[in-house]
């Protein structure tokens, strides 16, 4: 998916100051970690353990067992 810098700039301009801080930290990490782009796509077959984990995640979602956004932000900041 091609995204223009103008689109990104528009989205950034609409962020709150709090969100802008988080996005800035994420962009800095992405800019510093270009080696992630070199990681090959996982083409290994899906195992039964994978399917079990996916099923467990769907069940947790149905039960409302979600991760709090604050916990995600805290992890991204660490």
Structure description:
This protein has 78 residues and is mostly helical. It has one domain (5-77). The chain is 63% helix and 0% strand. It contains 4 helices and no strands. The protein has helices spanning 5-13, 17-32, 48-62, 69-77. The longest helix is centred in the N-terminal third of the chain and has 16 residues, at 17-32. The protein is extended. The two termini are 29 Å apart. The model has no long low-confidence stretch (mean pLDDT 87).
Bin the helical content: 55-70%
The helix/strand series, from N terminus to C terminus, equals: HHHH
- Label the structural class: mainly alpha
How many helices? 4
- Give a quick account of the main beta sheet: strands, pairing sense, barrel closure: none
Shape designation: extended
| Arithmetic mean of pLDDT | 87
**Spatial extent as radius of gyration:** 17 Å
Number of strand segments: 0
What fraction of the residues are assigned to beta strands by DSSP? under 5%
Number of domains: 1
How far apart the termini lie comes to 29 Å
Low-confidence stretches are none
Outline of the structure:
The chain is mostly helical.
Task: Give short descriptive properties of this protein.
63% helix; 78 residues; mainly alpha; extended; single chain
Helix-strand layout with pairing:
Elements: H1 5-13, H2 17-32, H3 48-62, H4 69-77
């Amino acid at each position: 998916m091609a995204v223009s810098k103008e689109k990104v700039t528009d989205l950034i301009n609409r962020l709150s100051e709090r969100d802008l801080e988080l996005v800035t930290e994420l962009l800095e990490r992405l800019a510093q970690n270009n080696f992630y782009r070199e990681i090959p796509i996982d083409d290994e077959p899906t195992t039964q353990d994978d399917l079990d984990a996916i099923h467990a995640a769907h069940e947790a979602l149905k039960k409302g067992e979600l991760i709090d956004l604050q916990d995600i932000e805290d992890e991204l900041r660490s």
